[in-house]
């Protein structure tokens, strides 16, 4: 299966760490829903300390759009969002929920 984001000339990767009441509230499923229509890859997972990590890559527009959608739809549950830019990974083929 080919990587769906290879057709974009510029691919970025960002890792978002959400803190607050973000586990057990449909946060990960919401992120998957919000990603529909965007060309992104990566994962979202619960962390043992109660945070949620979303590691996502795609075009700058799609990565930003997903972060905004998640932030808006889950704003009542998020107390803090930490963001880190990282090098992209070429072997990803979709956006999915994983375990920590």
Q: Explain this structure to me?
A:
It is an enzyme of class 3 (hydrolase). The chain has 100 residues and is an alpha+beta fold. It has one domain: Alpha-Beta Plaits. It contains 2 helices and 5 strands. The chain has a 5-stranded mixed sheet with strand order 4-1-3-2-5, with helices on one face. Helix 1 crosses helix 2.
Per CATH, the architecture is 2-Layer Sandwich
Which regions have little confidence, pLDDT < 50, spanning 5+ residues? none
CATH topology: Alpha-Beta Plaits
Number of discrete domains: 1
In terms of quaternary structure, the protein is: single chain
The coarse silhouette is globular
Query: Roughly how many Å apart are the termini?
Result: 25 Å
Strand arrangement, major sheet: 4-1-3-2-5
The main pleated sheet reads as: 5 strands, mixed
Computed Rg: 13 Å
Structural class estimated from helices and strands? alpha+beta
The level 1 CATH classification is: Alpha Beta
Pfam family, one: Acylphosphatase
Enzyme class: hydrolase
Protein name: acylphosphatase
Organism: Neorhodopirellula pilleata
Q: What's a quick, concise take on this entry?
A:
The protein is an alpha+beta fold.
Keywords:
single chain, 100 residues, alpha+beta, Alpha-Beta Plaits, 5-stranded mixed sheet, 5 strands, 22% helix, 35% strand, globular
């Amino acid at each position: 299966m080919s990587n769906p984001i290879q057709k974009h000339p510029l691919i970025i990767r960002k890792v978002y760490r959400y803190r607050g009441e973000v586990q057990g509230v449909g946060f990960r499923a919401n992120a998957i829903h919000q990603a529909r229509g965007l060309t992104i890859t990566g994962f979202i997972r619960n962390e043992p300390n109660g945070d949620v990590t979303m590691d996502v890559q795609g075009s700058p527009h799609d990565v930003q759009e997903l972060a905004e959608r998640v932030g808006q739809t889950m704003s009542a549950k998020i107390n803090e969002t930490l963001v880190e830019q990282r090098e992209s990974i070429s072997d990803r083929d979709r956006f999915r929920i994983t375990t920590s």
